[in-house]
Amino acid sequence: MRALPVAARLYVGLVALGAATAILLGVFLGPITEVDLGTLLLLAILFVIAESIATMVDSGKTGISPASAASLAAVVLVGPVGAAIVGIASGLVIRRQNLVKRLFNGAQFVIAGYASGTVFQLLGGRMGVPEPEMFPWILLPFTGAVLTFSLCNTLLMAGLMWSLGELRLKRPRHMRWRPLATLELSSIGYAMLGLFIAAIWGAVGPFAVLLVLLPLFIARWAFDQYVFQQRAHEATLATLCQAVETKDYYTRGHCMRVAKAAAMIAEELGMSAERVQTMRYAGMLHDIGKLGVPTKILQKAGKLTEEEYAAIQLHPMRGYEIVREIDFLDEALAGILHHHERIDGGGYPKGLAGEDIPEAARLVSVADVFDCLTSTRSYRKAWSTEAAIAELRRCAGTQFDPRMVEALVRAVEREGWEVPDLVEPVEDACEPCTAQPVGASEAAPETVPTGAAQTAADGDTQTDTNLTVGVVEETTG
Amino acid sequence: MMNSAPTVASHIPQRARHGRQWRAVGWTRPLLIGAALVSTAVSLLWTAVSGFEQPRVALAFGVLVALGEFARITLPGGREAAPIATASAMSYAFLFTIIGDPVSLPSPQVVAVVAVGMGLGELPHILVGRHPQWGDLARRFLNIAVTTLLFRPLIGHIDLDGPLWWLSLLLMAAIVVVVWLADSVAAAAIRADRMRTRFGVTLRDEMRAQVAIGMAVGASAILMALSVHVMGLTTLLVFTAPLLVTQVAFRRFAQIRRTYLQTVRALSRVTEVGGYVEAGHSRRVSRLAQGIGRELGMSESTLLELEYAALMHDIGQLSLRDPIPSGATVLASPREQRSIAELGAAIIRETGVLDGVAELVRRQCEPYLGDGEAGPPPLGSRIIKVANAFDDLVGGSTDQERVDAVLQRLRMDTGHEYDPVVVEALATVLQRPDFDWRSG
Fold this sequence. Notes:
Chain B: This is Lipoprotein. Chain B: InterPro entries: Cyclic_di-GMP/3'3'-cGAMP_PDE, HD/PDEase_dom. The complex is a heterodimer of chains A (477) and B (440). Chain A has 2 domains: 6-225, Arp2/3 complex 21 kDa subunit ARPC3; 246-476, Hypothetical protein af1432 (Orthogonal Bundle), CATH 1.10.3210. Helix content of chain A is 62%, strand content 0%. Chain A has 19 helices and no strands. Chain A has helices at residues 6-29, 37-57, 67-88, 99-122, 139-164, 177-204, 207-245, 254-268, 273-285, 295-298, 306-313, 315-323, 331-337, 359-374, 385-395, 402-415, 440-443, 459-465, 471-476. Helices cover 69% and strands 2% of the residues of chain B. A two-stranded antiparallel sheet of chain B has the order 1-2. In chain B, strands 3-4 form a two-stranded antiparallel sheet. In chain B, strand 1 (73-75) and strand 2 form a beta hairpin. In chain B, helix 2 crosses helix 5 (107-127) and helix 7 packs antiparallel against helix 8. The chains are: A mainly alpha (477), B mainly alpha (440).
């Protein structure tokens, strides 16, 4: 366990102090005697159970919990002080968590519970099981309470992040609003259910919580399955891409690095999260059709004949044929098919020019060549990032879309670029799958002659040699 | 462009196959659809004759059922479900009071309202040509009919304000469970007919597939009936919210499962494009393996694993420097076969999530009794071995004599190489008129 910064400790202390003050204030000033102790106890137990199950079902990534429903039910049933006391129970939740975190969580629920309880009563809500005639007007004070609850939690959490130094003020364009909004909305949704737990509490008591939360737990379970499958899918995709590269020692990791560069450009251009993901896929799969090109052509050291060059030019089409049935690739398909087009129209397979080239393809093309230049090939050392950028800029407007080149330059300047190390293949830290290409030569020495791939120039740059005319000759010659 | 010719050619047999499939369906599905139609007609007629009670309530529930049916989802395994429609229809059947006022609700009216609601919800889908799975639709409807018939006669005994309130709650829960069980049986019977597999296996599959969403629907149905009892009709909408979340979660789950399969199917073709194996080999092996697996009574989850393994069984060839002639692994030396299997398994294991699949791929070329201390390979591996050999030897040929000759050759090797049970299962599967492993 790493030590918390002093600022964070101080902050947690302050929040805990605030929580304690709220409870003391409530107990001494408020009408604590009216609170039904049995209900309070049951609510606290249910709160702990709900939160514990939630942590067990969910790996704790989402940060929202159905326990807020129990908390809001407490606001209605046992008032602000009751809600605050129920909030303390969150410290008892069964999960692996250190004391400081427990303290902070508990204090957070206490303060949020107390504040929202107060708002509920200020807006005219009455403590106790809501009577039928109170509907639907009770929705007004309750909505106020829910908003307060949500606001308190967000503010306290933001404060913690800030004191931990994890929250940087970003330019609004780079802020990911959509996930944040989804999170807020779903937590408000959970909290709204609190009212209805409270309402049927009169009829079925604690079963109310079970009935309300059961579908939610199942939903979470399903979401968890979904997230797991999604990760599995990502990992499988990445592994299969890398498997295609295993033959050639020098292009190992190329697909994952291009995927990373493509995502960086896409983010820099302010694309939505989904499109960034699509661009990543395009980068990852752009060379999958290379497999259809005979190895001896790809690895040929000398100048390519007309026919061999034609064979290489087929690879975007082959790649497209392989992956076109995958629905989610969407725009990425165009990126794969056209990633060797040039802005001046001199590329292949279609010879498109300028804006006719799909955006995804213009993007992947820059990412592809950038990684080619900055990684070592059998016949030359890797270029420095600066040299590669200078080269990309030189070819902007003829081969590349200048907008993409500049986006890449900005992204690399901000985030840096890890140049792959040949001795120990670099794994991209951003990838969910840290899979390494399979060591074919170790596994089956009799079928795969070790180092065969290293003897010849690699096909990847071979193709680019023809595109970035003069550049490669300069370095090799 | 280069694929257009085979696509056109494969179009015709595919349509013919559909026709045959229709005939292959057993009696369960028509029976259920017939029962649904009859009960709809009877309930509508009865309601028309004897009049309508509390139309406002009926309208509220009817609209909810229609909306839920409109937003139906497809769960993994091609199962259609409409959680919101089912839950609201069930809660209509469970309705006992509205804020204390007793509800007089004849059973046929419940059934009629639900039938109309479901029909209206399906109508837009049908109009744009997205037909529902009629068997599933009939099941959804009959679930409600059964719930109504079980619960409405007991309505006089429901009392949530007395000391025995928990008994009423228990009754509702029990009915939910009974209906869920009956539904699983019906679904399993339909599936067993359609998939040509054993009823016991499909029953377990169905129960596993439906238990989570069934619990969510059941809990929500009871909850909605209770909330109307306490707070009136306005709260109905609120309690569909948790179900909506559940539905979204399941929908995404089903989607990613489909995507995953698509990706593996597509990427399994890299070996074909690379010239390592014949075009379509992976998919043919996968289709054969699944047919055999179903015949041998494999469960849905094992079948999925088998499908992945069959699709990727040759992926190890990617690590070979040069493709083996014509890509037929059955003709390669045992040593070579072994190393392809090992390499393939190593690649698949890299994903970190497909260990079971990797194991099937790793042991795909072992003789059926095993050749080491590890014992016989898993059934999936033995199936892939037979399916792969069969496809390699038959090639793309449509000649029946060749198929028979290949089967004969496999049978001759059952002493050591091929599992005789698997080979016989293959022979059975191949005899079916509706089994086409070559196209699609």
